[in-house]
Design a protein that fits this description.
By secondary structure, the protein is mostly helical. The protein has a single domain, classed as Orthogonal Bundle (MetI-like fold). Helix content is about 80%, strand content about 0%. It contains ten helices and no strands. Helix 4 crosses helix 5 and helix 8 runs parallel beside helix 9. The protein is elongated, with a radius of gyration of 21 Å. The mean pLDDT is about 85.
Length: about 230
Amino acid sequence: MTTHVLALGTPWSGVPALLFPAFGQSAEMVGIVMAIVILLGGPLGVLIFNTSPRGLAPHAQVNAVVSWIANLGRSLPFLVLMATIIPFTQLVVGTTIGIKAAIIPMSLAGIPFFARLMENAIREVPPEMLDVGVASGASRWQIIRSIQLTEALPGIVAGLTLNIIAMIEYSAIAGAIGAGGLGYLAINDGYEQFDGTIMIACIALLILIVQVIQFTGDRAVRSLLH
C-alpha cells in the first residue's frame, strides 16, 4: 500500500504565477454561471411562489411542474450531475473539458438552487403587504416588482451569497476533471505532483475567497434590513 505524501515543492515566490491565472479561470466560470443563474433562476423562483396557494396566480398543475423541475436539478450530487450530462454538454458546447464545458452542469445545478432560495425569500414577505397591493389595484408585475422583490431583497441577497459560494465549490470540483481554475491547479499541480506548496496556496485562497464573499453578503443584508 502506497502513501501519497505531499512535500513543499514549488518555491513560494513562484506560486503567484500559477495561482493568479487559475483564480482568473475560476472567477470567469463563477461569473458567467451566476449571470445565467440570476437570469433564469430568479424568474423561476418568482413563478414557483406565485403559482403556489399563497401566490398571485395560484395554479396547482403549473406549480407542480415547475417545482418538480427545480427539485430535479437539486436531486443529484454535482459530480454525478456533471458525469450524467456529458453527452448534453458535448452537444451544446462541443467539448467536455474546459470552462465552456463546466458552465453547463454548474448552471443546471445553480438555477434550481437559486430558484428555491428566491421562493423562500419571497415567502418571508408578510401576506398583508401583498393583500394591500392587490387591494390598491396594482398589477401583478407591479406587486412582484414593488412588493415581493423589494421587501424580499435582504433574503434574496443572502440567498445570492450562498449561491455564489456553492458555485465556487462546484468550480473547484469541475476544475478537478479538467475545467481549469483553482480545483484543477490543486489536483493536477498539487496532489498529483506531490506539491504541498500549491495545495496549501489553493486551499488558503479558496478559504479567503469564501470568507470575503460571506462577509460582504452579510454586510449587505444588514444594511438592507436597516
